[in-house]
Each structure stands twice: as C-alpha cells, then as structure tokens.
Amino acid sequence: MGISRRADTGDSGLPGLLFEVSGGAGRRQLLLLAFRVVLAAVFIYAALQKVGKPLLFADEIGMYGIVGPGSLLYLIAIVLPWIEMLCGLALFTGIFIRGAALILAAMNLVFIVVISYRTVGIMTADGTPLRQIYFDCGCGFGPTYAWKKLIGDTLLLVFSVAVLFSPSYRFIAGRGKG
Amino acid sequence: MTAVMKMKRAIAQAAALVLLGTVAGLVHNGFSANGIDPFRKLDDVPVYDNGGKPLGETNPETHDGICYVSFREFREIVDAGYPILDARTSDEYKSGHIPGAMLCDYFEMGRHFETVLPRLSPEERIVIYCSGPRCDDSEMLARELYNMGYTKLCVFRGGLEEWDEAGLTLEYGPEEAWE
C-alpha cells in the first residue's frame, strides 16, 4: 500500500495530498482535521470568554472547593485561559500539534474529574438527581447540565487522545512536524 | 520516529506551550485594566462586627477595617451622605440599585476604579453592598479597597434584597448616570 505509507511519512505536496484524501489514510486525516478544528474552536472560544477576567474565573474555579482562595487560585485564573488559547491556535495551525493535544487531553481529564466531584457533592448534599444538576462549570460556555458537560468533555478527551497518538499529520502550516 | 520519541516531543512541546502561556498571561494581566496582583494578601484585612455596638457609637477616626452594618445602620449611613458602592454586575445595576450608589462590579473592578476612585477618600467611610446575604462580592471588594488604602469600610450584608423587601425606592438606569 504505497499510498498509505506515503500518507504516513508527513512529506507530500498538494497533488499527492489530494490523491491521498480519497483513500483510507486520507479519510483518517480528514477525521483528525475535524477533531483539531473542533478542539481549536472550543478552546479558543472558551479562552476568549475568560481572558482579562481573572477575578470572575477565579471565583468559578473556587466553587469547586479544590483550590482555596490564594495566590495559586489567582495564578491559575490568569494563566489557564492563555494556555487554552495557545493550544487552540497550535491545533488550528499545525504547529506543536502533539504538545497541544497532550495538554488538552490532560486538561479534559482534569475537567471530567472535578466536574464529577462537584456533581457527586451536589447529589449527596441535597439528593438532587443527576439529570437536574445545573451549574456554571467555569468553562466559558455559561451554566449547563452537568451530564451534558461530562459527555462533551469526554468527547473532547477522545478527540485530544486521537490527535496525540496519530502517527502523522496533514494540513499543517509551513514545515511543522507536529 | 518511534512512539517514545513522539511522546518525548509531545512533552517538550507541551512544556513550551505552558511556558509561553504563562508568560503571555502574566504580561497581559500586568497591562489589563482588570489585572490583579495574585500575591496580594486579602486575609490580613481586619473584619469586625463593630464590637456589638451600633455604628453611630464608633468613632469614624478609629474605624479601621471592614465593619458589617445592619439595615438600620446602613440607612443612617445613606442619609449621612457617605459614598455607596454597588458590587454587582452592570446589568444588575441597571435593573435597579440603591439611590446614589456607584457601580463597581467586583469582577471588573479595575475598569470601574478609573471612575469610582476619584470620588472616594481614604479618610471617609465607604459602604458597599451586593445582591443579598448569600453574596460575598461586597466583602471581597471591601478587602481589595482596604489593600489600596481605603480603611474605613462598611459592608451591608442584607444588600439589595433587604432594601427591596423593606419597600424602599430603587433607582434605575445606566451606570453613566453618575459618571
């Protein structure tokens, strides 16, 4: 399968690329591109909602009761949106793809754990059923149902892991090596 | 490239992105109107309940720190003409606030300080409120102001909720009304 092998080398011009997208490797690359675009759009949008509002974001993080008020909380609130923004841009442009995917996979894993922790806390505190638990997770998308957020973050985790472990990338800016 | 090499590259790239994001965040925070000092000490602010005495018996000269005031005391302060700050959001402020209160949204205080601070004096009492007893934005704003040298601070915990329940009049309109 010369075509597939070539798709994995990370070294082809536009004619080759157009030819490859019609094959199995091409479909895989298109799927990866879709994952990258979704991840980039979600994290750039989320970052834009939080950049320049450190007190608001710190307050939302503080709601989880995991990081108490103090310098660490404020530093997270100042820095995290910018890391999200850079990861989104990296996935979109194709520069540092693997590193961005690693960060986003780790972030989504943490988000799933802390949202689950808060959700279970609410369920045990007042017996609210899972389907009715509704709060602002501080993710930049406003209040939503916890179960919807958990499904969304799980999908983003799957996308990040798929991008992270991809053997090669197409649709990258310049001569980036991902 | 082997899987181990790819993972090493991923970790190196991730470290670079985290470092770049940290620098960008700190630089932007330094220049932003809403930037904060992450190392400021908000816990060292003296908070007291006026020793159980009515606020009127407290010497304004010796008032140092954050003092919680009752509804009655709050009304006395309002009548005495001390500056009042509304720590809620702009939208909440527009939909009804205590007459004469200046908007100073805690979460965007840096932006509001440009117009609010010139109207405040460190020598006089400042009273702050937010939505009601479950809201702590007024106390957080008071802690920030204390660190800036405004040491005679009063927090009305009852907030707009208690004022509204008492049937007192509200003022409506844009924040520009007092600017």
Structural account:
The complex is a heterodimer of chains A (178) and B (179). Chain A is an all-alpha fold and 178 residues long. Chain A has one domain. Helix content of chain A is 69%, strand content 2%. Chain A has seven helices and two strands, in the order H-H-H-H-H-H-E-E-H. A two-stranded antiparallel sheet of chain A has the order 1-2. The model of chain A is unreliable at 1-21 (pLDDT under 50). With 179 residues, chain B is α/β, with parallel strands linked by helices. Chain B has two domains: 1-31; 47-177, 3-Layer(aba) Sandwich (Oxidized Rhodanese, domain 1). Chain B is built from six helices and six strands; from the N terminus they run H-E-E-H-E-H-E-H-E-H-E-H. Chain B has helices spanning 3-31, 71-80, 90-94, 109-116, 137-147, 159-165, and strands at 47-48, 65-69, 84-86, 102-103, 126-129, 152-156. Chain B has a six-stranded parallel beta sheet. The longest helix of chain B is centred in the N-terminal third of the chain and has 29 residues, at 3-31. Chain B is elongated. The model of chain B has no long low-confidence stretch (mean pLDDT 88). The interface between A and B is medium-sized, with 31 and 31 residues.
Q: What are its keywords?
A:
heterodimer, A: 178 residues, mainly alpha, 69% helix, globular, disordered N terminus, B: 179 residues, alpha/beta, Oxidized Rhodanese, domain 1, six-stranded parallel β-sheet
